[in-house]
Specification:
single chain; 238 residues; mainly beta; 9-stranded mixed β-sheet; 4-stranded antiparallel β-sheet; 1 helix
Length: 238
């Protein structure tokens, strides 16, 4: 399925936001959690908003992702012209591959409403998530990341889980996912060692907040995830 909720841009950075499903612990009140990649699923559907703070302005992009399995936890398959809140998703690499779509935001309210026409082994269904998108959590720690150790703090948001993510903008990254009510996470020197110094125009801190739910539809288990990612650029890595 997908590994980390909102990292959409690299096939996820929504997915350093949903295909990074393996997460590690970290300090900060809250226990480690891995809500994504639950076993026995026939599909994972994700809807969210990505906010990018460049220090001079903040932009918003809506992100939708869906993957359907032919059998539980098996290879992906088609499900027709899938849409969420009226936005039609495109398949990443053609027939049989996951669906993905980016739309200029912001999220205007309301819950994620999915329409799946169905195809082959995937029966048609409509589903509106009962969980709302959590609010965005903003980084509150220093914008200078010291590679000898760094405590990443953020504003408190009620949600199922929260991801703390640091990137040097050169495909080097480190992250932790913790349960609510975590508002801080400490990264060790070894976890930060791969990050390159400099490059403040590309390096960023990311906080992702998620809510998730499971539903049995047409006798099959599906997982639905909603979330928000907040990226703070112009940070310095020493």
């Amino acid at each position: 399925m997908i590994k980390n909720i909102f990292t959409a841009i690299c096939i996820m950075a929504f997915l350093a936001s949903c295909k990074k499903s393996s997460t590690s612990g970290g300090g900060g009140g809250g226990t480690t959690t891995t809500p994504i990649n639950k076993p026995g699923l026939y599909g994972t559907l994700i809807a969210g908003e990505s906010l990018v703070d460049s220090s001079t302005s903040t932009s918003s992009t809506l992100q939708f992702y869906a993957a359907f399995n032919k059998y539980a936890d098996s290879v992906t398959t088609d499900a027709g012209n899938v849409s969420c809140n009226g936005f039609t998703l495109s398949q990443l690499f053609g027939s049989g591959t996951p669906y993905l779509s980016f739309v200029t935001g912001p999220w205007v309210g309301g819950n994620a409403a999915w329409t799946v026409p169905g195809s082959g082994t995937v029966s048609a269904f409509n589903y509106t998530c009962t969980r709302s998108l959590p609010s965005a959590s903003l980084p509150t720690s220093s914008l200078t990341v010291n590679r000898t150790g760094y405590t990443f703090t953020c504003s408190s948001v009620v949600c199922d889980s929260i991801k703390f993510y640091i990137s040097d903008g050169n495909s080097n990254e480190t992250e932790h996912t913790l349960k609510y009510p975590a508002t801080s996470c400490t990264f060790t020197a070894s976890e930060l060692s791969s990050l390159l110094s400099g490059n403040p125009s590309k390096a960023f801190l990311r906080v992702c907040t998620y809510n998730y739910e499971s539903a049995t539809i047409n006798g099959k288990a599906y997982q639905f995830i909603v979330g928000r990612a907040y990226d703070k650029y112009k940070i310095t890595i020493n």
